[in-house]
């Protein structure tokens, strides 16, 4: 199995600004169940649905603007703009250059799109930490955003949602949350995939649970906590990838975390699974309520499969910056319920010609 | 339709991030950028990022859209008076037509304007939504 490798940068790094975006439309699982099963419920209450003029790029742009507002740095100071997503609007042409142009960061920076199912955003975050931690740059923007699609009637349709979060990584002295350590745990595990030119993904049914979600999250979380000499009791909060409500609750319990520790970051019941945006939007919501000194464990999961784990420590800088952009809660409260018919129109599921 | 990629590309600064100009001679804020100050007629090429905040001056809801906007009907187009002075014509978004009022505070967001068919480029640009 090899040796556990915890990543710590030479220069201490952290998050200097963070921001999220969640579209305002909501589709309830009861409405999906009414259409496909004649009634009943689903794994979440409702999910966030992107409007007609929204996609991964527009979600990423607003999240990035919120992160810049909290960081208080000019966009021209960014030396990388990285977007992680499984639903970029173009198959070929970066989403990152569009985002960078919209926030005014171009042209002197790195730009690329990351792909690793639901952990593409945390992968971008680790890369940003590497860039700043190695002193190759002072500020890097990492975003995870998605407008996830499930096949109509499939189990995934009940949860596949839209949203995203952006982080600006910078030197620890300027950070509102310092990174104390991070690692990744990956194996080749085909629990969920989408072949080229296919519109909807496929998944391995029950196979997505134990060998995929639970194995990778638990392996990453246990290894990082053990390497750092920490247990669940050393954290104020924990955030796990949230494809539904049941999985993160169960993995939290197995790792020794209480329901209170995961409460602020468990959003899937109210917005669904925002894929590359999921764990990090939960983390963003947790930063919205955290206090200086709080430690937060963040563990993502991406199908295919892998988990990125992080230990964060919130600093006193959080207090002054939190209110410089809308909170996750403000976006969740901005809510317009739609029915299944409007949903299929908004998500382009009707053949028009 | 022949793709006019360059036409849209040239406008990316003003479209994506509402970048205007400021006249170095009389101080007028200009949007859209036109390199000649409409107030004093002198050259004005200094870029100026605008806040994106403003209010609805007037509006109209579109039910018979021009080509390329059919998918968005009904949508509301407004004259938005920006905080910095200029008046901008733009679509409103994240708001039902019957919720729009003159004087409503709005803010700029970057959204999809339209896509050029299934194979062409996607055009992004500014719209305005009710202030969060």
Shape of chain A: globular
Q: What is the spatial order of strands in the main beta sheet of chain B?
A: 6-5-4-7-8
Q: Which class of secondary structure composition applies to the elements of chain A?
A: alpha/beta
Counting DSSP E segments of at least 2 residues, the number of strands of chain A comes to 14
**SSE order of chain B:** HHEEEEEEEE
**In percent terms, what proportion of residues of chain A is strand?**
15-25%
The CATH homologous superfamily of the largest domain in chain A is termed: Thiolase/Chalcone synthase
Distance between the termini of chain A: 53 Å
Number of domains of chain B: 1
Topology summary:
The complex is a heterodimer of chains A (353) and B (132).
Chain A lengths: L12 E9 L3 E4 H9 L8 E4 L6 H16 L8 E5 L10 H9 L6 E5 L5 H14 L6 E8 L14 E10 L5 E13 L2 E2 L8 E2 L5 H19 L9 E4 L5 H9 L4 H4 L5 H4 L6 H12 L5 E5 L4 E11 L3 H4 L6 H6 L2 E2 L2 H7 L7
Parallel strand pairs in A: 2-14, 4-5, 4-6, 11-12
Antiparallel strand pairs in A: 1-7, 1-8, 2-3, 6-7, 8-13, 9-10, 12-13
Chain B lengths: L4 H6 L1 H6 L1 E4 L6 E2 L15 E4 L3 E10 L12 E8 L4 E5 L13 E11 L6 E9 L2
Antiparallel strand pairs in B: 1-2, 1-3, 4-5, 4-7, 5-6, 7-8
Describe the structure.
Helix content of chain A is 32%, strand content 24%. Chain A has helices at residues 29-37, 56-71, 95-103, 120-133, 209-227, 246-254, 259-262, 268-271, 278-289, 318-321, 328-333, 340-346, and strands at residues 13-21, 25-28, 46-49, 80-84, 110-114, 140-147, 162-171, 177-189, 192-193, 202-203, 237-240, 295-299, 304-314, 336-337. In chain A, strands 5-4-6-7-1-8-13-12-11 form a nine-stranded mixed β-sheet, sandwiched between helices. In chain A, strands 3-2-14 form a three-stranded mixed β-sheet. Chain B has one domain (5-130). Chain B has helices at 5-10, 12-17; strands at residues 19-22, 29-30, 46-49, 53-62, 75-82, 87-91, 105-115, 122-130. In chain B, a hairpin with a 4-residue loop joins strand 5 and strand 6 (87-91). The longest helix of chain B is centred in the N-terminal third of the chain and has 6 residues, at 5-10. Classes of the chains: A alpha/beta (353), B mainly beta (132). The interface between A and B is medium-sized, with 21 and 20 residues.
């Amino acid at each position: 199995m090899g040796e556990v490798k915890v990543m710590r940068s030479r220069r201490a790094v952290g998050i200097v600004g963070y921001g999220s975006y969640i579209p305002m439309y909501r589709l309830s699982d009861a409405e999906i169940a009414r259409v496909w099963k004649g009634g009943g419920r689903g794994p979440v209450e409702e999910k966030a649905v992107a409007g007609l003029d929204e996609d991964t790029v527009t979600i990423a742009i607003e999240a990035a603007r919120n992160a810049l507002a909290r960081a208080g740095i000019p966009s021209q100071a960014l030396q990388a703009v990285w977007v992680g997503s499984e639903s970029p609007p173009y198959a070929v042409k970066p989403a990152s250059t569009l985002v960078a142009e919209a926030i005014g960061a171009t042209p002197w920076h790195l730009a690329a799109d990351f792909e690793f199912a639901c952990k593409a955003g945390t992968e971008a975050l680790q890369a940003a930490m590497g860039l700043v931690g190695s002193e190759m740059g002072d500020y890097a923007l990492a975003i995870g955003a998605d407008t996830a699609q499930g096949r109509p009637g499939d189990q995934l349709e009940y949860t596949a949602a839209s949203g995203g979060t952006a982080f600006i990584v910078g030197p620890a002295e300027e950070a509102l949350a310092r990174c104390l350590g991070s690692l990744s745990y990956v194996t080749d595990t085909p629990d969920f995939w989408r072949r080229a030119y296919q519109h909807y993904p496929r998944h391995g049914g029950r196979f997505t649970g134990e060998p995929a979600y639970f194995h990778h999250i638990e392996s990453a979380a246990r290894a990082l906590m053990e390497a750092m000499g920490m247990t669940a009791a050393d954290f104020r909060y924990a955030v796990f990838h949230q494809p539904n409500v049941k999985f993160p609750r169960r993995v939290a319990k197995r790792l020794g975390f209480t329901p209170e520790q995961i409460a602020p970051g468990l959003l899937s019941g109210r917005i669904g699974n925002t894929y590359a945006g999921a764990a990090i939007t939960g983390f963003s919501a947790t930063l919205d309520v955290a206090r200086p000194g709080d430690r937060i464990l963040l563990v993502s999961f991406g199908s295919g499969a892998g988990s990125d784990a992080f230990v964060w420590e919130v600093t006193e800088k959080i207090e002054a910056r939190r209110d410089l952009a809308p909170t996750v809660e403000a976006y969740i409260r901005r809510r317009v319920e739609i029915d299944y018919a409007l949903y299929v129109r908004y998500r382009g599921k009707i053949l028009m010609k | 339709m022949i793709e006019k990629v360059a036409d849209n590309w040239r406008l990316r600064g003003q479209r994506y991030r509402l970048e205007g100009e400021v006249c170095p001679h009389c101080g007028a804020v200009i949007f859209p950028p036109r390199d000649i100050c409409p107030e004093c007629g002198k050259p004005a090429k200094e870029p100026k990022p605008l806040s994106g905040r403003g209010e609805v001056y007037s509006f109209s809801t579109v039910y018979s859209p021009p080509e390329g906007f059919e998918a968005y009907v009904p949508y509301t187009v407004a004259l938005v008076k920006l905080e910095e002075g200029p008046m901008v014509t733009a679509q409103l978004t994240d708001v039902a037509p019957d919720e729009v009022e003159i004087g409503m505070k709005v803010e700029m967001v970057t959204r999809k304007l339209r896509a050029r068919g299934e194979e062409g480029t996607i055009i992004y640009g500014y719209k305005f939504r009710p202030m969060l």
